[in-house]
């Protein structure tokens, strides 16, 4: 008798819990997630990259069998930007014209580069400058100390704040 009573209590508790969780999960799966709409920005955008050092491939990075690996990596909103096929030299500006991927609202340019091991006792920097239709949109310098990997991002907002300032 005790066995049947404990079995029936167990079935009621576990069965009730199963019914509750399955109905809760079914209700959650019916809700469609909100998908943000990204509006591509209009205009002619360019990116200028000016390092204070000549870059070389990171000797400590994982070596993948990729012949297209560059010594400098630049991403716009998470998407890799294809850089010109020229050597990255100290003080020489790399320019990427017809920059696509800038959206209305928040944007971010990420840069990562490896300075030469021979210059490990120096501080290094990379100047990022974003230009829209010949006018400066955003700029910043990413610094590293004593030969460490230079990496950082330039965050900027395009669109709403800019249009609000033109209305006045």
Describe this structure in words.
21% of the residues lie in helices and 32% in strands. By secondary structure, it is of the alpha+beta class. A 4-stranded antiparallel β-sheet has the order 4-1-6-7, with no helix packed on it. The chain is elongated and about 90 Å long.
Q: Helical percent range?
A: 10-25%
- What is Rg? 27 Å
What is the residue-mean pLDDT, rounded to a whole number? 81
What structural class results from the helix and strand content?
alpha+beta
Helix count, per DSSP?
A: 2
Strand content: 25-35%
Please name the defining characteristics of this protein.
168 residues, alpha+beta, four-stranded antiparallel beta sheet, 32% strand
Characterize this entry briefly:
The chain is of the alpha+beta class and 168 residues long. 21% of the residues lie in helices and 32% in strands. The protein has a four-stranded antiparallel sheet with strand order 4-1-6-7, with no helix packed on it.
List the helices and strands and how they pair.
Elements: H1 2-29, E1 45-51, E2 72-76, E3 79-80, E4 94-96, E5 105-113, E6 124-132, E7 135-144, E8 150-158, H2 160-167
Antiparallel strand pairs: 1-4, 1-6, 2-3, 2-5, 5-8, 6-7
């Amino acid at each position: 008798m005790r066995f049947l009573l404990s079995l029936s209590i167990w079935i009621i508790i576990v069965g009730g819990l199963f019914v509750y969780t399955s109905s809760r999960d079914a209700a959650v799966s019916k809700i469609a997630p909100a998908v943000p709409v990204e509006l591509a920005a209009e205009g002619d955008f360019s990116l200028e990259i000016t390092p204070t050092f000549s870059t070389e491939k990171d000797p400590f990075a994982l070596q993948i069998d990729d012949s297209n690996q560059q010594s400098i990596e630049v991403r716009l909103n998470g998407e890799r930007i294809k850089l010109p096929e020229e050597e990255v030299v100290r003080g020489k500006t790399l320019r990427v014209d017809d920059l696509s991927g800038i959206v209305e609202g928040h944007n971010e340019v990420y840069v990562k580069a490896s300075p030469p091991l021979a210059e490990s006792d120096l501080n290094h920097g990379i100047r990022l400058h974003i230009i829209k239709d010949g006018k400066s949109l955003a700029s910043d310098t990413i610094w590293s100390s004593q030969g460490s990997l230079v990496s950082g991002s330039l965050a900027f907002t395009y669109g709403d704040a800019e249009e609000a300032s033109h209305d006045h």
